[in-house]
Amino acid sequence: MRIRIVDAFADRPFHGNPAGVLLLDTAFPTDAWLQQVACEMNLSETAFAHPLPPGGDADWALRWFTPAAEVDMCGHATLATAHVLATNGLATGLIRFSARCGILTAETAEDGTITMDFPTSSLTPVPAPAAVDHALGGPPILSVHDTADHVGDLVVELADEKTVRELEPDHAALRAFARRGVIVTAPAEDPSLGYDFVSRGFFPAFGIDEDPVTGSAHTALAPFWAERLGRTELTGLQGGARRGLVRVTLAGDRTLLTGRAVTVVDGELLASPPAA
């Protein structure tokens, strides 16, 4: 089986967020085998997909695994999967995926960008948990919002871009926090540079200390910043040492996520799944 590593939300190699992509001919093998492959890849997510019979609501079944667990929704690995399908002639036009979070779509434009349609996350204001405040090192927190179940992150608003960039969280302390992850965010210091807000994402409970670019988190960041900036079309810059841009369009209960992707590794997986 061919297995690929794709840099998502990037226009050149070694930028954005790498994801593994494994396309299967038939139904998913055991969960244990999928988890072993994801652990071996040791990327923030590895996507597994197989084609579905024609005439249904979706064209491909899609699942995502971190090195430690399966997740409900992943943006950058969906982008990576759509990129592989489009560039290898396995799908054209609108691609429909059936996933744990519902039906997701991805469509490649003539300029090579891929736009995905994801459910918009809800945002519920909550007090700043003392554990998170401690784990982040005590920066001034302006607000904290809980997100919908399929996202499962806390969105923590900080004062400015500099604070977000210089943050050095205690990952061990965050690992004990019973959520998917923590997203810290702030407005862009200089929007003329091509982005409106910044963010970083920490997911140590799922085996990922920091995720460079988290597409699913932008389904919460889109409504968060649309309300504050008064626009429904925005661009976010996410990451610490490694970064990527996500264009977002808020369309009510759906959020469109747009980015680019590039394949950096195309190899062969020699470990076959167990026989049914």
From TrEMBL:
Isomerase as UniProt keyword: yes
The protein's name in its UniProt record: PhzF family phenazine biosynthesis protein
Coiled-coil region: none
Family note: Belongs to the PhzF family.
Keywords, in A-Z order: Isomerase
Highest taxon, organism lineage: Bacteria
UniProt-listed NCBIfam families: PhzF_family
